[in-house]
Amino acid sequence: MTNLLNIKPKSGNQWDLVSLGEVLLRFDPGDDRVHTARSFRVWEGGGEYNVARNLAKSFRLDTAIVTALADNQIGRLVEDLVRQGSVDVSQIVWKPTDGISRTARNGIYFMERGFGTRPPTGCSDRGNTAVSQLTLGAIDWQAIFSTHGTRWFHTGGIFAGLSDTTADVAREAMAAARASGSIVSYDLNYRDSLWSGRGGRDAANELNRELLKHADVVFGIEGFDAGFASFSEDSFRRSANEMISRNTSLKLLATTLRDVISASTHSLGGICFSDDQVVRGKDFQGVEVLDRVGSGDAFAAGLIYGLLSGETPQHSIDLATASSALSLSSPGDGLSASLSEIASLSSNTAKSTIR
Question: Residue 101 maps to which CATH number?
């Protein structure tokens, strides 16, 4: 599978992965509800960013984030959090502000983790953000993909859905990445709030199909019920082949499999499809959940790490599902597990107690 993707070697490439996406400031009320909390823990997060952060922090790869932030104290706080996540901040575009964020602002969101019968609930405040104002030509992609060198480029439907101009930027970036020989992955992530009044899911699907023309790898399968217990290999294979028939550039498709028993308990797995082969990762049944947010991004990071490292398809998808399962056990968007913990869980050598 790695040969099929034709991944560039590390030599001559500064970054193993570059992500394009928004970095939000997340306010976490812990065990409280947002409307009753009087204190919040602060994290950084964002679908596309989380992949870069996980690969840098847990898997020790060299990654960078391409984004834009309003140049004020909040933006500098986000930058500091990104630095703590071990992600290169040199490609952040800084937007001047007028002092009260009329011209550009930084996105924030409040996220309840959920418990038992109460589902996780998010409330975003991300209109008119600096990153949503990015336009064609704002980023020097030639420098990123050729001068510095990038092995893998990642973006997705959240960034592309921020505005009409970010869709253009995603298209520009993906085309430049493929032209340079970088592997391009795209996550079909969808947020109702981003598409409200703009055509909803139908418009998002139309954009995704257009952008997938520039992708080698996709996370998420159109028209497929990604349930855990109800998984059908025939249905998965059919949906995957339909996507490939519409997007001949695609070489690998992957998705998590999940049954939500309650907000506190999930059954989780993962699967990928490439070269007409279906490979299923290790299953985790009845996993206790502390914080669900970011578990799909942890899955993506685990799979990408395996492929970048030349691992087999089976080992790569096992790393992906183990990463996703471990991410459920800690708070925040980012994966806090170490590579050794992920590898141990993926290979059935995890200990019940470590002393």
Answer: 3.40.1190.20
Among the listed residues 212, 328, 196, the one whose alpha carbon sits nearest the alpha carbon of residue 266: 328
25 bridge partner residues: 44, 108
Name the pTM for this structure: 0.96
- Is the residue at 351 inside a domain? no
Which one-letter amino acid corresponds to residue 60? R
Q: What is the DSSP letter of 136?
A: T
- By CB atoms closer than 10 A (0-12, 13-18, 19+), residue 325 is buried
Number of domains in the chain: 1
Instruction: Examine residue 243 and state whether it is found in any structural domain, yes or no.
Output: yes
pLDDT (tens digit per residue) in 165-204: 999 999 999 999 999 999 999 999 999 999 999 999 999 9
- Assigned domain for 355 exists: no
Strand-pairing partners, residue 154, are: 19, 185
CA 144 distance to own-chain centroid? 20
Q: Does residue 192 lie within any of the structural domains?
A: yes
- How many whole angstroms separate alpha carbon 44 and alpha carbon 49? 9
Structural domain boundaries, residue 294: 2-346
* Beta bridge mates, 106: none
Asked if residues 205 and 246 have their Cβ atoms less than 8 Å apart, the reply is no
- Give the model's pLDDT for residue 2: 47
CA separation for the pair 70, 108 (Å, rounded): 12
